[in-house]
Amino acid sequence: MGRGVQGRAGSGGGVTMKRLPSAFAEFEKFAEKWCLATEPERWEARLSTPMSEIREFYDAFSGRFEEAIDYCDKFPLDDIPDDALNLLHLVYSMIMVSMAVEIFGTQKPTDSADAEMHRVSAPVP
Fold first, then answer.
1. CB proximity list for 74: less than 8 A, separation 6 or greater
2. What residues are paired with 17 via a beta bridge?
3. How do residues 36-79 score in pLDDT, each as one tens digit?
4. What is the DSSP letter of 37?
């Protein structure tokens, strides 16, 4: 489907993976969990993450959400750098969790039975 989480080693040979553009480094702590390449992965992460963690991500990222979109818009989608692609995946995850925070107040919509997300194809990236 799409490229998964891409990273690069930190300076000095450290083991810390830098996944996001330096201008968005403050969100690295969310990158491992929320930089997900596919919508089903994001849906599963939303369903399996406690609301307190979803809310923490939402509160942290919402103030710079538009800025992140503007940053990603600088690149053509077929040639987006890995760090910007990861940021775009973070934007997609923010969209997924915003419904849980703003509308439902819970990870899973009420009366949704065993809601699952299946796609025959997915937008790329």
1. 84
2. 9
3. 999 889 999 999 999 999 999 999 999 999 999 999 999 999 99
4. S
- 35 backbone dihedrals φ, ψ, rounded to 5°: -85, 80
Name beta bridge partners: 8.
Answer: 18
DSSP secondary structure string, 66-81? HHHHHHHTTS-GGG--
Phi-psi region of 63 (alpha: psi -120 to 50; beta: other; left: phi over 0): alpha
> Residue ranges of the alpha helices (H) in the chain?
28-34, 39-48, 51-62, 65-72, 82-99
pLDDT at 11: 45
The pLDDT tens digits of the residues spanning 92-114 come to 999 999 999 998 899 887 665 55
pLDDT of residue 84: 98
Distance CA(56)–CA(54), nearest Å, equals: 5
Quick check: bond before 125 cis, omega within 30? yes
- Dihedral sign computed on CA atoms, order 5, 59, 11, 23: positive
Q: Give the residue among 36, 80, 34 at the shortest CA–CA distance from 60.
A: 34
